[in-house]
Design brief:
The protein has about 110 residues and is mainly alpha-helical. It has helices at about 5-15, 25-45, 55-65, 70-95, and strands spanning about 100, 105-110. It has one domain (about 5-110). The protein has four helices and two strands; from the N terminus they run ααααββ. A hairpin with a 5-residue loop joins strand 1 (about 100) and strand 2 (about 105-110). Helix 1 (about 5-15) runs antiparallel to helix 4 (about 70-95), helix 2 runs antiparallel to helix 3 (about 55-65) and helix 2 packs parallel to helix 4 (about 70-95). The radius of gyration is 15 Å and the shape is globular. The relative contact order is 0.18.
Amino acid sequence: MTATTDFIAELVRAANEVAKLPPMERGRLLKRAIATIRNMRDIVGFPTCGSAADSLKAIGALAGSTGSRPDADVRAALLEAAGMIRDLRIVMDSKIEVIIKNARGLDRPTS
C-alpha cells in the first residue's frame, strides 16, 4: 500500500474508534488531512476557493475544536477527509486533465 492509502485507512479506522481518541489526536489527524488535501489539490491543479461550500473549510473549523465537538461530528469530518483524499488520488492516478474556467471565460488546462 502507498502512504496515501495507509493514511486513508488510518482516517477511517480513527472514525470507527473516535470515542477512544483523545481530542489532541483527533485534531492532529484532521490537520494532517487538511494539509494532505491542500497538497493534492495543488498537484492536480484544483483551486482552493475557501468559500463556505468548500468542505475543507468546515473540516478546518472542526479541527481546532475537537474537544468540544460531539463524536458524530468528528467522525463525519474524518470520513469526509478520507473521501476527499481518495477522490483526489483517483484523479492523480488517472492523469485526468482538469480545465478551470475563469471569470472571463478563458479555459486554462492544468495537469
